[in-house]
Each structure stands twice: as C-alpha cells, then as structure tokens.
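**Protein fold record**
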Amino acid sequence: MINLEEISSGLRKVRDGYWVSNTQTAVSYPEWGNEICYQLEENSFWFDHRNNCILELIERFPPVGALFDVGGGNGFVAKFLLDAGYPVVLVEPGMEGVRNALARGVSPVVCATIEEAGFKESSLPAVGMFDMLEHIERDMAFLELLNRLMIPGGRLYLTVPSFRFLWSQDDVVAGHFRRYTLGALQRKLTLAGFRVEFQTYLFAFLPLPIFLFRTIPSVLGLRKSERIDPAGYHSQHVHPSGIGGKVLNWFLNREQTAVNGKTRIPLGASCLVVARVSK
C-alpha cells in the first residue's frame, strides 16, 4: 500500500486514489499534447513498443518499491505497468492527462509537478520519466532533485528522444529543449549522483525517416506549424499491413529481445536507460 501522506507535505486528497497540490507551475508542454497522445496511444505501434521495452527493462532491473511515473501524461505507461503487477503512482500536472488516466483506471494519481508534490527527501523508491526529461529546461538541476528525493539504491527509468541532428519543428512544437545521446545522458546522470546500469537506443529504423521527413523540411522552412496535426501523426503511428507490417514486427521483436538480453542497440530515435541512486 502506498501512503502518500507519509512521504508528502504538499498534497491534498480529493478522493480515494486522487491527490492534488495547492499550487500550479507552468510546464513546457502544450495544453493539447495529452489530448493528441490520447487519440494515438491505444493503436500506436510506437507507444506499444515503448511500453513493451520499458516492461522488459523493469523486469530485468526491478524497482524496490512503487514506481512514481513523473510527467506520465494520460497514464498509458502507468496502466500498462499496473496491469503487469507493478505498483505505480502517476504524477502528472496536466488536468487533461489526469482525467484520462483516472478514466483508464490508474490509481493513485497525483495532479502536480514533482516539485509541487512536496515529496520528502529519500522517500521515492523508483521513478520513471518516459519522454519527459526533454521538457525540462534545467535538466541537471532536475536530476539532482530526483536524486535527493529517491531512496539510496532507488532506480530511475528513462526514455528520451535522441540525437541533435534529428531536431525539427516537431520538437519545438512539443516543447522540447533538447535531444540526447546515450553518452551525454550518462554524463549528466553520473554528475547528478546516479550510476547507469543499462542503456540502449530504441527505434533503430526511425532516424532516417525522421531526418528526411521532419528535420530537412524544418531546416528548409517547410514545417512551420505551431500545432501537431492529429491526422498526420495518426497515419505515422498506425501499424502497417502486409509486408510492411511484417518488416516492422521483425524490427520491434528484435529490439525487445535485445532489451531482454541487456544488449545495447547502437542507433535509434530514442534512448532507454536505467540508473541507480549511488548515495
């Protein structure tokens, strides 16, 4: 049982399974972001594959207690891990994401940023940040804060977008401050007091299409939209049929097997990392 009253001084219980903070801080994420993701998640090969690889990672490097899914949006990852038998607390500042997560049956849900929640130092056994760190302008300070809030030996699970050369207008629209390499991410985690246990790239087949269809058009000024087109993103996330679907499945299965075997994939559009608090 997760007792939030014991580890937090900044939360107010609204009802069973739902907590809120008394303050609200602006975040670098568009208001419509959770709405767009909610339309995609259930039928997206990308979100599905990320979930599968996250679960493989967690099973190989299990948390020592409840996992706090920080900035977990609509609770898509949280619900997946809950269904797999792992205790999860969703910490999400956006009301749209909170409503969607509650509708999915995620519990408990905390409507707050990690700072607003007022968690005590050395109180969080595990933290997940899945495509969230890139939205934090001062990422080093944020990682140092997490290190203080986590218990000694606690595990941090991360996914982030990779490689600066893949930067595009889509990153700007999504509220990203950067893309990462595994090396840069490891250096920051080490400086913040973590020890990386395993790291790999994911989505090895995506850098080329991202570069061709997002990065180059952005450099040429052909992608200027200030909002993501839901229809366009939907077509990119749908699992193809026929031979294309078989080829995609081959790539996805190969990557999931690699994570299962703790084998590093040398290139990809995302980074997947597990690190341990070294204090």
Q: What stands out?
A: The mean pLDDT is 93. The longest helix spans residues 242-260. The beta strands are 11-15, 18-21, 67-70, 88-91, 109-111, 124-130, 150-161, 194-202, 270-277. Residues 4-277 form a domain with the Rossmann fold fold (CATH 3.40.50.150).
